[in-house]
Design a protein that fits this description.
Layout (H helix, E strand, L loop, with lengths): L1 H5 L2 H20 L5 H15 L6 H28 L21 H26 L1 H16 L13 H22 L4 H24 L1 H6 L5 H5 L1 H26 L11 H13 L6 H25 L1
Helix pairs in contact: 3-4, 3-7, 3-8, 3-13, 4-5, 4-6, 4-7, 5-6, 6-7, 7-8, 8-11, 8-13, 11-12, 12-13
Length: about 300
C-alpha cells in the first residue's frame, strides 16, 4: 500500500496541498477572526435599527476588516520571531515562522497581499464615506504593522490593549455605523466599547499566559509592565463592564430581549475565576477559546437584539 501511494503523484500532490492549507490556516489564526467580524456585524445591526442598510457596504467592510486582521496576525508571526518573543519555550499555539513551517519571506509577502486586499476593499468605502473613512483606513493599515513592528511597536510598549479597544471596538463599530447611516451617536460609542472590551479580553489573556516569556524578550505588555495580579483585574474589568453597559440598551430599547446577553454571565464569571485561580500556563489556551466564544456570542446576541428592535 505504501509503495502504491508513493507511485501516485496525484495522491502525493493532494496530500501536500492539504498540508500546506493547514499550515497557512495556522498562520492566519482563524479563531481570532471573530475580532474582525463581530464589530462589522454589530455596527451594521445598529444602523439597521434606524434606517435601511446597504449590503455592499457590509460586504466591503467585512472583507477589509478580515484582511487587516489576517495581515496583523501574519506580521505578528514573523516579527515576534525576529524579536525573540516566540521561541521553542512558547506555550501558546504554534507559530509558523518560529516552527519553520513557512519561510519568513513567504509570511511577509502574504501579509503584504492582505494589506493590498484591505486597500482594495476600502476604496469604495472611502469614496462613499469621505475623509473620515479615509483617515480611519490609513491609520488602521499603519497600525496593522505597528502593532508589533516598526520603531514603536504597540504590543511591546504595553499599548496593544488600548489599540484593540479603539480599533476593534469603538472605531470599527462606529465606522461601519457611520458608513451605513451617515451619523455617529452615543449608541454607537457604547456598542463600540462593549465589543472592544470583550475583544481585548482575548489579548489580555494571551499576554498573561505569555508573561514569563515576554519578560525575557522585553515585550512590555500590560502583564509584564504592571504584573500578573494587575493583568487579572484588567481581565475582570474588561469582561464584566460590557454587561454593566447593557443597562444602556435596556433603557433605550426596553423589552425582555435586551436581557438576553446576561445568559452569557456564567461563562464570563467562569473565565474570570479561572484566570484568578490558575497561574499563567498552557491552560490559558482553553480560557482564550472561552473568551473568543464570549466575544462572538455577546456580539451576535446583541446584534440580533438591535436588528429586532
Amino acid at each position: 500500500m505504501h509503495s502504491l501511494k508513493n507511485a501516485n503523484p496525484t495522491f502525493e500532490n493532494s496530500r501536500d496541498c492539504l498540508k500546506s492549507i493547514q499550515v497557512w490556516l495556522q498562520a492566519i489564526r482563524p479563531k481570532t477572526l471573530t475580532a474582525a467580524v463581530v464589530p462589522v456585524l454589530a455596527g451594521t445591526a445598529l444602523a439597521w435599527s434606524i434606517a435601511p442598510i446597504s449590503m455592499w457596504i457590509f460586504a466591503f467592510a467585512l472583507i477589509g476588516a478580515l484582511a487587516i486582521q489576517i495581515a496583523t496576525n501574519l506580521i505578528n508571526d514573523y516579527v515576534d520571531f525576529d524579536k525573540g518573543a516566540d521561541t521553542h519555550e512558547r506555550i501558546g499555539p504554534r507559530r509558523v515562522t518560529q516552527s519553520q513551517l513557512i519561510t519568513r519571506s513567504a509570511v511577509r509577502r502574504a501579509a503584504a497581499l492582505m494589506l493590498a486586499i484591505a486597500v482594495c476593499a476600502g476604496l469604495p468605502l472611502v469614496i462613499h464615506g469621505g475623509p473620515v473613512i479615509l483617515i480611519i483606513g490609513l491609520v488602521s493599515l499603519f497600525l496593522a504593522y505597528s502593532y508589533t513592528g516598526g520603531p514603536f511597536p504597540l504590543a511591546y510598549l504595553g499599548l496593544g490593549d488600548l489599540f484593540v479597544i479603539l480599533f476593534f471596538g469603538i472605531v470599527a463599530v462606529g465606522g461601519v455605523f457611520y458608513l451605513e447611516s451617515g451619523v455617529y451617536n452615543t449608541a454607537a460609542l457604547v456598542l463600540g466599547i462593549q465589543i472592544g472590551f470583550l475583544s481585548t479580553v482575548l489579548i489580555a489573556i494571551n499576554n498573561l499566559r505569555d508573561v514569563h516569556q515576554d519578560t525575557k524578550a522585553q515585550k512590555k505588555t500590560v502583564a509584564v509592565r504592571w504584573g500578573i495580579q494587575f493583568a487579572r483585574y484588567e481581565i475582570l474589568v474588561l469582561t464584566i463592564a460590557p454587561f454593566l453597559l447593557q443597562l444602556f440598551w435596556i433603557r433605550e430599547k426596553q423589552g425582555l430581549l435586551t436581557l438576553a446577553p446576561y445568559l452569557l454571565l456564567p461563562l464570563a464569571f467562569k473565565i474570570v475565576k479561572s484566570v484568578f485561580c490558575t497561574e499563567p500556563s498552557e491552560a490559558y489556551n482553553h480560557y482564550l477559546a472561552q473568551a473568543a466564544a464570549l466575544h462572538a456570542g455577546y456580539g451576535i446576541i446583541l446584534s440580533l437584539i438591535l436588528m429586532k428592535a
